[in-house]
Amino acid sequence: MASRYPFVLSGSRAFPGKSIAISTSLFLLVLAFSAGGCIREEDITLEQRAHQLAGELMCPVCEGQTIDGSNAQIAQDMRLKVRERLDAGDTNANIRDYFVVRYGEEILAAPKGSGFNLLAWIVPVVIVLGGIGIALTMINNMRKSTERSAVPTAPAEDDLSMYLEQVDKDLGVADQANQSDKAHS
Amino acid sequence: MADLGVMALLLGLALSAYSAVGSIIGEKRGMAELVVSARRALYMTTLAAAVASGALINAFVQNDFSIKYVADHSNTLMDRAFVWVAFYAGNEGSLLYILLTLSIITALSVWFAPKRLARSMPWTIAILAVIQLFYFGVLAFVASPFELLGTVPGDGRGINPLLTHPGMFSHPPLLMGGLIAITIPFAFVSGAMIAGNYGDDWIDVARVSAIISWGVLGTGMLLGAWWAYTILGWGGYWAWDPIENVALMPWLVMTAFIHSVMVQKRRGMFRMWNVALLNIAFVLAQLGMFINRGGPVVSVHSFAASTLGVIFLIFMLASLVFAFALFLWRMPEMKSDRAMESFISREASFLINNFLFLSVMAVTLWGVLFPLFSDLARDVSVSVSAPYFDRANGPVLLGIVIMMGIGPLLPWRKSSARSLKQWFMWPTLVGVLTIVVLVALGVQRPVAILAFGVVAFVATAISEEWWRGTAARHQAGDNWLLAWWRLVNGNRPRHGGYIVHISILMLGLGIIGTNFYQQRTDGALSLGESLVIDNYRIEYVGNGDESRRDRIAQWAEMSVYRIDTNDYSTEIAVARDEGLSGFTLENSEVRPNDELIAQIQPWHGFYPDFNMASVRSGIRSTIVEDLYVIPRDFLADGRISLAVSINPLAWWLWASGPFFILGTMVALWPQSSVERRSKHQKVPAAPDDNEGEL
């Protein structure tokens, strides 16, 4: 049976996920489009860049703080150094390398995405994709076992009916309402 | 005092050992009286822990510096109110505090345990007793807070200056209490597994105790963030450092659990899964205890250095082995009653949400452990800090928020296309509209715009649900407020959950605002000078200082003006040319459109005994943005060196707290017996309806 609404099939062959799939992809499309539209040249000052970089460099004498957050003398000196290199026209990558040469890899607040450290970045992707994959497989397997055991199911209830039922219940007329519902289905 | 404390600890040790052994033997041999005796012994450990804690607190009150712990963590100058904080300021005291909490919640949960769990209670009690035994043992023999000093000092060293903040009265106790409280649902579930009580008898007690520990831990973390924001003086509130991460990880797993346990309650599914989640959460809580004891940085070197660390590591590994051996042993018995029917159902969305929470947990764990692997594999030290976790966890956290909008709108079992369209139309429209409007307004940062759209989507989904439910009741004759109240009251777990979701959205707003739109400038001011950033002018108008034997405090008086940037266009143009976000003005004359909006007092203290500085930022907070002034240093030439930032939406981070607590309480609030009875009478035939108990 065809529906009056676009994107909606009804009747026994309807795939309930279809409309959600379509609206999700529309949603994503709009997102992609608008995201593309809002990338502009950012009005970013050297000071802001310095602040960002300072957030990516660890303070060597403080435990677990970046130089951006630390009040230690060495952090202040390093912040000045960052500023100096920026004024001299260095790129962010140049500046990071400058500090790695002097203090070792430990100075970077996040490991670089190369060599052994690439692992730090790949594993999370594997975890997340793997996790979603396992979840979907689990749901699918559990679903298949239903089809085999063929549990009879009533159609899912939707929209206002569930609230009206609850209201009826609260008003103490649940029993009649339940029975009349059963009669309809 | 010290003797009394030690005696209480030894007594507790004996009682918990007796309780564990008695409970197991009594159950195995069918000696009912021994089981009862073992249970009562477990109540008595609370008394032992309380006496030991009382002895330590009394030693602080009496300034008994013959006890090393007291001398290390307080002095005569300390405000007496901080005795409570000093109690858990160090390793030994915090362990005693943890034991005290554990013994109290153990006694309460055993006392209130439902009757139908009688068969598994001896095992639950044995598990709880063993865990208490461990803490009593550590406190009595390895890390005694009652160790005496050979020579009694005239005064103590004083309390760690970073702890002298109102947030410290509640943040550490809540955090430690929340972590240890995970023991309770774990012990109940494990007891049921050992006893072969595979049904759902343990669900209610596990759910309630899990939500309590989760709510307490969550509140503790939020208070910690607030403390960091106001006192640590680095301008942030969450640094993803190992200590924070080890509290976050079990919390994430518990979040997964309190969602999926509802699936078991309603549909009889996910049994194995729920047991596994509690096991993981418990082991992660032990990891938290270990990292907190073994030193803040995980590395091969630090935990080898601390005996306490090794002991906690062994205990953690033992609990890991125990939990999963038990799980594998009983796994075949824990089948689901029903099967999954559709991908588009609430149970399926809960499973996906569970995996997303576990992913964030696993990625965080990976980040915490990676420096260790790097050390072992390459002998090169690396740091894994905020920039890594932001990037690695950010997208999944956004995904979780999206699921927060989708999941609750899906019905159980499966959904019809019509209902999907009906339910998702408005949230999707509002979400997309938000994005379009933000882009049209010229707001920058695509990721943040997307995140705002997601927040709008979820907020609309919750409002829609409340709107429809309230409207239906309104039709039936209630006024709007009463209609909404009845809706919430009709299903407190569900609507309490929505209130918590709203708090998470508020938190989300704060996180987006502060992470993506912060402005920042540094500067140094002499008296009478001003610093200008965006449309604020901060004038240094005065200062004060106070010297105490244990600290030298200095503070600045500053007037904050809202300015019209047109009045300052020349200076702004110059600053831009130099690449500066802000600038200083030597002459602080008030220009035509300047308006005085606040007085702030950035405060800086130096503690010579600790060689440590502590700062209190000057904050002027509105719901739009915070002006945040960190006094970095008072320089020798009389200037004050400042880091000034504008933190958009930071207010929402802290405003979310009350909603989080409120929602948790609503979800937990027990149904009165009258309500329960009426429910059972009226809906016997419809266990699968969409409403009801969620």
- Give the low-confidence spans of chain A: 1-16, 36-41, 150-159, 173-185
Strand composition percent of chain B: 5-15%
What is the radius of gyration of chain A? 29 Å
* Unreliable stretches covering 5 or more consecutive residues of chain B: 295-304, 677-694
Instruction: Report the principal-axis shape of chain B.
Output: globular
Q: Which bin fits the share of residues in helices of chain A?
A: 55-70%
Q: Kindly provide the name of the CATH class of the largest domain in chain A.
A: Mainly Alpha
Number of helices of chain A: 7
Through-space gap between termini of chain A: 19 Å
Any idea what the radius of gyration of chain B is?
A: 28 Å
What structural category arises from helix and sheet content of chain A?
A: mainly alpha
CATH topology of the largest domain in chain A: Helicase, Ruva Protein, domain 3
Number of strands of chain B: 11
Number of strands of chain A: 0
H/I helix tally of chain B: 22
The percent range for strand residues of chain A is under 5%
How are the secondary structure elements laid out?
The complex is a heterodimer of chains A (185) and B (694).
Chain A lengths: L16 H21 L8 H9 L18 H15 L4 H12 L14 H32 L11 H11 L2 H11 L1
Chain B lengths: L1 H28 L2 H30 L6 H6 L9 H5 L3 H21 L9 H22 L28 H11 L1 H13 L7 H30 L9 H26 L3 H23 L6 H6 L1 H24 L15 H33 L7 H21 L10 H24 L5 H30 L4 H11 L1 H25 L2 E7 L4 E4 L2 E13 L2 E12 L6 H9 L4 E4 L9 E6 L2 E5 L4 E5 L1 E4 L3 E10 L5 E9 L1 H19 L4 H10 L12
Antiparallel strand pairs in B: 1-11, 2-3, 2-5, 3-4, 4-6, 4-7, 7-8, 9-10, 10-11
Helix pairs in contact in B: 1-2, 1-6, 2-5, 2-6, 5-6, 5-7, 6-8, 7-9, 8-9, 8-11, 9-10, 9-21, 10-11, 10-14, 11-13, 14-15, 15-17, 16-17, 17-18, 17-19, 18-19, 19-21
